Amino acid sequence: MISSLRGQVLSIGLDHAVVEVGGVGFAVQATPATLAGLRRGEEAVLATSLVVREDSLTLFGFADTEARELFGLLQTVSGIGPRIALATLAVLEPDKLRAALAEGNVTVLTQVPGIGRKGAERLIIELRDKVGQLAPAPGAEQGTGQVRTQVTEALLGLGFPAKHAEQTVDAVLAADGTLGTSEVLRRALATLGRKR
């Protein structure tokens, strides 16, 4: 399997780029955001995934390994092929996609062309628990959706009502969305303690 490419960008199209590695030009399908980060004539490094079909070999490129892992994970759901998986990553950034899956947000997922309500529900059911297992890219912040879910579950375990727990966590994250799980939990507990 071809897991990454490093080479000169020969050309950039609407949905792909051609990257020359060792004298061979590789056509790489990619999202508009990934393509926007490439410059013709400059060196590029892409995390890649090779999809083998009976009649084709298609290489998909990503700006980082986190997006590549999500691309592979999306395809484990029945009815989701590489094209819809790529479209999903084109519409939703990895953090936003993780948050939508963790929170069960059907509305966000149905923004992707080719994913209807039933498809979104299937994605949530099959991937909700798996998105937390993917390690974020080095230096990447933990997604706010994941933090929200973890803190809310912790508060429910401590006996707080679901509605109060969710509203408090949302308020803490709205004030500062860069906080980690432990700090959000600490602030939420302080807020809920004052209300009792």
Automatic annotation (TrEMBL):
Q: Which UniProt keywords apply?
A: Cytoplasm, DNA damage, DNA recombination, DNA repair, DNA-binding
What's the domain of life for this entry? Bacteria
What this chain does, per the entry, is described as:
The RuvA-RuvB-RuvC complex processes Holliday junction (HJ) DNA during genetic recombination and DNA repair, while the RuvA-RuvB complex plays an important role in the rescue of blocked DNA replication forks via replication fork reversal (RFR). RuvA specifically binds to HJ cruciform DNA, conferring on it an open structure. The RuvB hexamer acts as an ATP-dependent pump, pulling dsDNA into and through the RuvAB complex. HJ branch migration allows RuvC to scan DNA until it finds its consensus sequence, where it cleaves and resolves the cruciform DNA.
Q: Which family does it belong to?
A: Belongs to the RuvA family.
Show the HAMAP family listed in the entry: DNA_HJ_migration_RuvA
What is the species of this protein?
Saccharothrix syringae
Name the gene that codes for it: ruvA
> Where's it mainly located?
cytoplasm
GO MF assignments? ATP binding; four-way junction DNA binding; four-way junction helicase activity
Entries under NCBIfam families matching the protein: ruvA
Please name the Pfam families in this protein's record: HHH_5, RuvA_C, RuvA_N
Q: Which protein is depicted?
A: Holliday junction branch migration complex subunit RuvA
Q: Name one GO cellular component term.
A: Holliday junction resolvase complex
Record's domain comment? Answer: Has three domains with a flexible linker between the domains II and III and assumes an 'L' shape. Domain III is highly mobile and contacts RuvB.
InterPro entries associated with the record? DNA_helicase_Holl-junc_RuvA_I, Hlx-hairpin-Hlx_DNA-bd_motif, NA-bd_OB-fold, RuvA, RuvA_2-like, RuvA_C, RuvA_C_sf
Localization (cell) = Cytoplasm
